[in-house]
Amino acid sequence: MVVDPAFRVFVGNMVTGEITCDLPVASHSWGLRLNGAGDIDATVRAYAEELRNKDLRNFTAVKKQYLAVAYGDRILEAGPIWKRDYNASTGALKLGASGIWSLLDMVKVLNWAQINAGTAVTRSVLSLSGLSLGSIASELVRLCVAGNPFNPGLPIILPAATTAGTNERSYKGYELAFLGETLRKLTQVENGPDIRFQPRYNGADPTRIEWVMTHGTAASPLLYQGGDDWTWDGTVDESGVSDIGVKEDGTAMADRVWQPGAGSELEMKLATAQDLNLITTAGYPWTEADAASKDVENLTILQGHANAAMAAARRPIETWDVSVRANTNPLLGRYLPGDFAQFIVPTGNPMLEPGTRRVRLMAIDGDNSNTVNLTPAPMPAGV
After folding, report:
1. Which of 30, 97, 236, 361 is least buried, going by the fewest C-beta atoms within 10 A?
2. C-beta separation of 76 from 95 below 8 A
3. Continuous segment of H or E residues that includes residue 139
4. What is the number of helices (H) and of strands (E) in the chain?
5. Mean pLDDT over residues 147-163, rounded?
6. Element (H, E) at 201
7. Residue range 232-267, pLDDT digits in tens
8. Cβ proximity of 138 and 159 under 8 Å
9. Beta bridge partners of 93
10. What DSSP assignment string belongs to 165-176?
């Protein structure tokens, strides 16, 4: 007899990672995101027998405690609780949390070594050079979390070593940039590396969890599974894949992209990129688009943004909506945002040609049922 993996919903201390309590829940939902935080929601039965004599108020304290959802031996998402809503008439406690990236969205990028030595915050500068973009990201986390003397730290496992490169970044104290957004911007430049904070049980002490930071490299900036593509065969009745919904959007199409940078009026930095293929070969009308990066001063970085924006604007965008079963191969928890998958499209879909399409998973969402919603990366229509 095959036993389906079970969902586990639990809470713990954000600073130490220690698991403090498993929660009896009436329902829960969760999401995973590439280069960002997924959301976790749970409705707890506050008067359940399992919680008798337990300090539910302290165990679910906002910001202090994390909420986590696991499926089998894999933690899907975990991060700080930000919202609580107790309904006295029903005895239901609703918890709202987000992945650890949401906490980094509230940490400043500052050179604490300079500040502690007496430099004014507005005059401090955090400079990193001679590194890969991924190593710049991991150094930012190290310096802005562990380097802050007031920050008690987080159970984040950083990459074991930094990697040399030709990149440099300089963050001025007066900008008061947030770490989470700064990391996100590193992923958005041309050939920018994916960044992931993957929760897992601590191997030496499974009563604690930790978040493992990984990032792409210059040679392979994308984070994805090491083996073959995941496969869902829509032509097989028992495959667990539903019909594939398709949306197409051409509102962001452009033949030239303008990328304004730092500065104003005559002093404004500006990059641009264009692609005339649809104009010269397919009879399309001309359109233009802006993709501002007003805080970018380096023209090379700004041009990288423009090139990436132009690549995305060449064709209309096609997005899919696919539902699969959690308890059919591949099992939930094995695939992650960023992984590549192949969907075998059956005949009968009026918007898609039958056959195999390779996609990249960008978001994975679900609840306490065995239905999992997959969101592949938007792709150029017709490719």
Report:
1. 236
2. no
3. helix 133-141
4. 7, 22
5. 95
6. strand 195-201
7. 988 887 767 876 888 888 898 999 999 999 888 888
8. yes
9. 44, 86
10. EEEEEEEEGGG-
